[in-house]
Amino acid sequence: MNELRRVGWLTVTRIGVVGTDSSHVDQFVRLLNVEHRHGDARVVALAGGDTERNRALAAAAGADVPRLVEAPGDLVGVVDAVLICTRDGRAHRAEAIPLIEAGLPVFVDKPLAGSAADAAAIVDAARAHAVPLYEGSALRFVPAIAELAGDRPTAVHVTGPADPAGPYGGLYFYGVHLAETALQLIGELGDAGPVDLRTSGLVVTALTTIGDVHVTLTFVAGEVPFHATVVRASGVRSRELALPPDYTAPVLERFLAVAAKGEPPDEAEAAAMVAPVALIDAVTAQLG
Questions:
Q1: Beta strand pairing status for 81-84 and 155-161?
Q2: Which domain holds residue 192?
Q3: CA gap 131, 1 in Å, rounded
Q4: Residue 235 domain-assigned?
Q5: What are the residues whose beta carbons fall under 8 Å from the beta carbon of 166, sequence distance 6 or more?
Q6: Name one Pfam family in it (predicted).
Q7: Same structural domain, 78 and 147
Q8: Over the chain (288 residues), what is each successive 10-residue block's mean pLDDT?
Q9: In a domain, 41, yes or no
Q10: pLDDT at 191
């Protein structure tokens, strides 16, 4: 199967899901099983057992009802690819690597992991076993990101909701959106400088440099919109990063394309996957 992957012959029609508590799974089931947006591709199995949540997802799937399996490992031999949607990124390494080692293409919902070490382990496994891997934030696809694109900026400021005391890994759960957005707007990765932290009430602000770019991330423990400001010699642009109703659709489309291509992440892609988690590592280290 790995040989077929290398020449891009992998067909993905049977998809399994791990971590079904996430609202993203509702969208994936609707997009695949109800609206049939990707041909014959369907969610055919949900890990986590016979729970009320899984039964509700299965009932919402229409005629193509997924089977319920107990553990992620039970998906091996049943599916062609897996969506890992567990909200707490600290679980992702243990969930993803055995599936990758079994030869299954894997999508890992944000964050890739709860530490840069775990993120690197997932990426290294995909590269070692020549298995497709995709991860990331839906914010990368919002139209406002394209509006902010341009030459390498001199400064970037991203604001959004993220709670250091949140139950799903603290800042990693939503804060990785901010880190990934900042790195995407910067473009080419550079060495990260030390992090200077400011905290006040519900707000944590981290200041650092990525290469020659000044980066500010403002995490707010409350319901605030995602927002980005980019500073260049030509001027300053600011945009709210508003997610559309079907914000997971481009994420799913990209994963299926990556899986069908059948190639693991290259060196640059691997580095880009780990970098946002490493940035959150640096921020949380200063929080103590």
A1: unpaired
A2: 139-243+281-287
A3: 10
A4: yes
A5: 173, 174, 221
A6: GFO_IDH_MocA
A7: no
A8: 43 94 97 97 98 98 96 97 98 98 97 98 98 94 95 97 96 97 91 92 96 97 97 97 96 96 96 97 93
A9: yes
A10: 83
Radius of gyration of the CA atoms of the chain, in A: 19
Question: How many domains is the chain built from?
Answer: 2
b/e map 44-59, b = 16+ CB within 10 Å: bbbbbeeeeebeebbe
Closest to 216 measured CA to CA, from 269, 153, 150: 153
* Domain assignment of residue 158, yes or no: yes
DSSP character at residue 34: I
Residue with tokens 């991860």: 135
Token readout for 50 is 């016979």
Residue 131 token pair: 């298995």
- Does residue 144 share a domain with residue 81? no
For residues 229 and 155, give the distance between their C-alpha atoms in angstroms, rounded to a whole number: 8
Of 216, 218, 240, 214, nearest to 228 by C-alpha is 240
Dihedral angle computed from the Cα positions of residues 19, 21, 27 and 30, in that order, rounded to the nearest 10 degrees: 90
210, β-bridge pairs: 192, 213
User: Is the same domain home to 131 and 256?
Assistant: yes
Structure token pair of residue 127: 């590269």
In a domain, 270, yes or no: no
CA distance 163 to 166: 5
CATH number, domain of 27, equals 3.40.50.720
